[in-house]
## 1
Amino acid sequence: MTAAVLAPAPTAAAADAAFLRLAGVGKRFGGLLALDGIDLEIRRGEVLGLLGDNGAGKTTLVKVIAGVHQPSAGTIECCGEVVRIASPDRAHQLGIETVFQDLALIPNLPVADNFFIGRERTFDLVPRLIRILRNREMERDAAETLKRLDIHIPSLRVNVDSLSGGQRQAIAIARAIRWKASLVILDEPTAALSVPEQTKVLELTRQLAGQGVAVVYITHNMDDVLRVTDRIAVLHRGRKAAELRTAETDRNEIVHLIMSGRR
Ligand SMILES: Nc1ncnc2c1ncn2[C@@H]1O[C@H](COP(=O)(O)OP(=O)(O)OP(=O)(O)O)[C@@H](O)[C@H]1O
Ligand SMILES: [Mg+2]
């Protein structure tokens, strides 16, 4: 049943709830304050655009959420409880998946294997001695998820390095869906993609939100911002300069905020 691989639809009440709540989050690198007093709610079923000029602090904020960096100030709540996201593994346990353009998948492994890295299905042929991978089963499972999302890959046995950037991005997002992520962070997912590939990634992003997943979407592309986000947070020199509903703003205002940090 295909529905089994998808996150459950949220109830109306849950749809409003914040999945993550950052309060006063700061990150210092030596003398540089890369993040300063960031308050931010990341909500289920919503695409939050994280915008800002080069060096504004976007990737640093993502790395704090993904357990790569520890904040030097502030607190993070997940589902209403204060958490310490001490490592990327801890972030995965909390249902936080980060998709980077090229680092998300292992290039010299087939598509199906990439779906199951660190979560391989096996059975013991001889207990504690010979363990066999359930390749067929993993392939069927990956194929089902890709079919459900209307992602066409020539074969699940080809290595990921023979696929296009857009196909890789689609697989990385499909994997996050397969593992029922609660929050998916996309750091510049459409940079260097062809136009049809960009459209596919934007569609998948909306599908994720439609399934009740919280999505953080980083981009410098204003068309993407206007097409895919529900809300926007603008960072400027490590501070949050503004938070807006996408429907209530326009390209000029967003660009002005990114450049000046002021309304
Ligand atoms: N590991 C690090 N050590 C020291 N300084 C860092 C480190 N990582 C980031 N910085 C600094 O923190 C600031 C924010 O960087 P960050 O990578 O978060 O920016 P960004 O908003 O993602 O920019 P871009 O749009 O160019 O990707 C920059 O001044 C950067 O030089
Ligand atoms: Mg960055």
Note: The domain at 18-102+164-260 is CATH 3.40.50.300 (Rossmann fold).
## 2
Amino acid sequence: MSQTAPIIVVGGGIAGLVTALAAAPAPVVLLMRNAGSNGAASALAQGGIAAAHSQGDSPAAHARDTCAAGSHHNDAAMVDVLTRSAADAIDWLQRLGVAFDRNDDGTLQLGREGGHDRSRIVHAGGDATGAVVMAALVAAARNAVHIERHTGVDVDGLMLRNGGVSGVCITRRDGSQSALEGCAVVLATGGIGGLFAHTSNPPDADGSGLALAIAAGADTRDLEFVQFHPTALAVPGLHSLPLVTEALRGAGAHLHDAQGRALMKGVHPLGDLAPRDVVARQVWAACEGEGAWLDARAIGDVFTRDFPTVLAACLAHGIDPRSQPIPVRPAAHFHMGGIHTDADGRTSLPGLFAVGEVACNGVHGANRLASNSLLEGVVFGRRLGQCLRDIDGAAAGGRSFKFLHRGPSLDAAQLTRMRHLMTQAMGPLRTGSLLQVALRDCDALACVGWQGALARALVSAALRRRRSLGAHFRDDGPLSGHSTKGAWRVA
Ligand SMILES: Cc1cc2nc3c(=O)[nH]c(=O)nc-3n(C[C@H](O)[C@H](O)[C@H](O)COP(=O)(O)OP(=O)(O)OC[C@H]3O[C@@H](n4cnc5c(N)ncnc54)[C@H](O)[C@@H]3O)c2cc1C
């Protein structure tokens, strides 16, 4: 007999929360590893949310910048949806109670970041946008009667039935395990920074949702495209590095090397505000030598007001950015690729949906434009939630189901080895020979732990793409003409 089953949403970041809220009044079970916004990259977002708000700006101009950053590998229809829905997404967040920063005349304050041809980034609490937005979403989810929240829950398996996905397997913090059936399973598990030696992502961004979808046979897309943020705070011994927001460069900060030479001079017409992959390669090359620094001293008095998060992170590590340059290095930041979805989050497997960073509908192309991913979570989360609202709530029923478990994890030493491997082979500069070596090692690691299998999928995708494109920069590709010493050429 069939019964009403909930929509299962896995992940309590912006994409999962927005999807869950937008599905009202359909019943939703929201599964999260941590309470509140802990563990979600969304809460760490510093720059803000891009939307064409100012006079003279338009969704078309925002779309142009999005596609230029993405090396025109973007799905134009998805970019259109994103950029046209942006202003409405900001309004929706404001109705939920998000107070974006405003000018004295009451208009929204707009910042500028790399790759944007003008100021169009709304922000909240200065550089605390993610925390402010997440606080409003978490409060709304707590008050929503259609959402049942479970924290301390790791989703480590899927229930498969009739060629589709009909539920999840969960392990609670106390070690107890169970399965939960749903009329739809939404993976909103975020990114994959945890596969790399240095990342701006929180530890929960381990790629487990993507790994599960791949193991279940879901189609993936663009797995090779990993964005490195050029300026994470270079703190020795840390895996998750604090971010030094790009908005600082928007406000006039400059990158330089150990000799004080400007890193971006003559490299790109936008200089320090060049697209992230271009800046990341310069900083990467400098870090292979004596290091790279961001000089933000000129920002002066407004540091405390506009960049409280960066200031606090720097001071916590003994650096005062008001009086000394900030040591920086690139860190794995955002995965453009992921589980292949359409505009409504449908994957190739019936019953399985994906949204946010774990998903790939092509909107970011080969490189994400800054401040487009919180927007992605809101725009595509709302679309998906609204679609799921109308889904048949009957559980699939029937006895013939099986469980697909994530399997064992790599141990600490194996994880460290894999992260080093991934950073060398899948970093901002890639070569076929290093990728081949990484593939061999990942083959071996894949027999031991699920992270190895996921890493192998990424490396295989990078090997298949022989030409440089966006964030995938092959030093040895047929058309690549990059010199690690500096010159910027389109490849
Ligand atoms: C430091 C930093 C700054 C950024 N700044 C900006 C910015 O200014 N503007 C912008 O647009 N983007 C920014 N980004 C990118 C953006 O924050 C993320 O891409 C976006 O928030 C991803 O949202 P999400 O909901 O997909 O994932 P997340 O917010 O990461 O949420 C994923 C959720 O899934 C949970 N989870 C993961 N695996 C499991 C599992 N197996 N079982 C149960 N739960 C699980 C996690 O605990 C978490 O709750 C930034 C990212 C970082 C790291």
Note: The CA atoms of residues 112 and 203 lie 28 Å apart.
